[in-house]
């Protein structure tokens, strides 16, 4: 339903830019191929999962957090490349994300 709504909206309206407020909403990028997209990063999500994995004592949870961190980093790389502009909300996140290969953050 959301994908249909966005598809119809993009056909009916002209947009100068689209603000995507978090990486979890980046799945909607496919609807905005001809529109400037701004991807906002409130946190470096995959980095947070890596930190959580590092401090986790339970082996199963540690494995799960590391696996999810790797999967999320792949998504962050894909969507950061697709975005016209990436913005991090904090200097710390911007620095940490910029240290990762293939992530371009302002």
Structure, explained:
- This protein is of the alpha/beta class and 106 residues long.
- It has helices at 2-12, 45-55, 59-82, 91-98, and strands at 17-20, 36-41, 85-88.
- A three-stranded parallel β-sheet has the order 1-2-3.
- Helix 2 (45-55) packs antiparallel against helix 3 (59-82).
- 19% of the residues are buried.
- The model has no long low-confidence stretch (mean pLDDT 89).
SS-derived structural category? alpha/beta
Please describe the biggest sheet, giving its number of strands, its sense, and whether it closes into a barrel. 3 strands, parallel
Spans where pLDDT lies below 50 across 5 or more residues: none
Ends: how far apart? 33 Å
> Order of strands across the widest beta sheet?
1-2-3
- Encode the helix/strand succession as letters: HEEHHEH
Shape: elongated
Radius of gyration, rounded? 16 Å
**How helix-rich are the residues, as a percent range?**
40-55%
Strand content: 5-15%
Mean pLDDT: 89
The tally of helices reads 4
Please give the number of β-strands.
Answer: 3
Summarize the model shown.
By secondary structure, the chain is of the alpha/beta class.
Strand-helix topology:
Elements (H helix, E strand, L loop, with lengths): L1 H11 L4 E4 L15 E6 L3 H11 L3 H24 L2 E4 L2 H8 L8
Parallel strand pairs: 1-2, 2-3
């Amino acid at each position: 339903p959301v994908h249909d709504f966005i598809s119809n909206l993009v056909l009916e309206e002209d947009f100068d830019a689209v603000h995507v407020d978090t990486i979890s909403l980046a799945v909607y990028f496919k609807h905005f191929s001809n529109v400037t997209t701004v991807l906002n990063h409130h946190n470096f999500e995959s980095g947070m999962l890596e930190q959580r994995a590092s401090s986790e004592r339970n082996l199963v949870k540690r494995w799960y957090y590391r696996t999810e961190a790797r999967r999320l980093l792949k998504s962050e790389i894909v969507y950061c490349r697709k975005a016209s502009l990436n913005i991090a909300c904090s200097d710390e996140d911007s620095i940490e994300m910029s240290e990762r290969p293939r992530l371009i953050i302002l």
